[in-house]
Amino acid sequence: MSGHIRQLVLPLALLFAPMACASPADPSQPPPAAHGATETFALTDAERARTLPVRIVLPETTAPAPVVIYSHGLGGNLDVAGYLVDYWARSGYVVVVIQHPGSDDSVWEGKGPGAAMKALKQAANAENYVARLEDVHFVLDQLERLNRDDPRFAGRMDLSHIGMSGHSFGARTTEGVSGQSLPHAGTRFTDPRIDAAIMFSPSVSKTSDPEEQFAEVSIPWMLMTGTEDIAPVGGETLEDRLAVYPALPPGGKYELVLYGAQHSAFTDRKLRPGQPQRNPAHHPDIEVLSTAFWDAYLKGDADTKAWLDGPGPKSILDPKDEWERK
């Protein structure tokens, strides 16, 4: 190689060296400290004579942002996963929390422990389940209207990228609108507007084979549970929760089992007397991995997807936690 050509090649090598040495994606870094406005209001479905409290938390950016919907568990409300809603909004998502009448905190408020438990068991029924599935469809319809007409939200939502999530009864709700085949109903509740889903404390229906239920799931799913994740109402066991992942078709499917995590680990609801304190490491792990999933599948972030599919998750988890993907 002549000296003249060598002089040209060396500066080019130096120019591209920083790109070759760039740091890989690190989703464990915290998001910005603040999010945008929070709006809490009600949406009325006149056709069903049903009014839903909702909360929409905006990111700081005014550019259209992907949307994540959250569905609470049995007896919950708009506040039960505030830590997670806050983190997702700070990470650049419009977060929409739905409160489901008939299976929310109105079921147990003002009742003694025995009466409250009886009321919760009665509320965990098929009618409320179907109402929840229809709530999600209705809210998605309303988001299109709000994004078009409401000055608080106009143009702020990227409705071509929507994630669905929920805990416990909300996880079952999420499964039902995100691809699960329901007994005697096929997949008629699946909403094609949903692009990815996260279930906290998922479970299988006991009325049909798990592989039958989940064979038609065609979008990315992330499942999170814990080794002590047993529901106080409904009778779901850890085996019921762990039966979902093996039944899912491969491709964009993930499962996290947090060691020692109880059913309450995925919320920030006040603990009942006698309940063990939450492991302080669990919420940060839940925040980071769920947001990495959204970034990979709603924002199309290839670097974060590579982190999620590589050794990244295990680098932040406790060695006793279990992480799988397929």
Outline the structure in words.
This protein is of the alpha/beta class and 326 residues long. It has a single domain (33-325), classed as Alpha/Beta hydrolase fold, catalytic domain (Rossmann fold), CATH 3.40.50.1820. Helix content is 35%, strand content 20%. The protein contains eleven helices and nine strands. Strands 1-2-4-3-5-6-7-8-9 form a nine-stranded mixed beta sheet, with helices on both faces. The longest helix has 24 residues, at 126-149.
Short description:
The chain is an alpha/beta fold and 326 residues long.
CATH class: Alpha Beta
The name of the CATH superfamily reads Alpha/Beta hydrolase fold, catalytic domain
CATH fold category name: Rossmann fold
Distance between the termini: 48 Å
Assembly level: single chain
The DSSP helix count reads: 11
Q: How many discrete structural domains?
A: 1
State the secondary-structure class: alpha/beta
SSE succession: HEEEHEHHEHEHEHHEHHHE
- The tally of beta strands, per DSSP, is 9
Distinctive features:
single chain, 326 residues, alpha/beta, Rossmann fold, nine-stranded mixed β-sheet, 11 helices, 9 strands, 20% strand, disordered N terminus
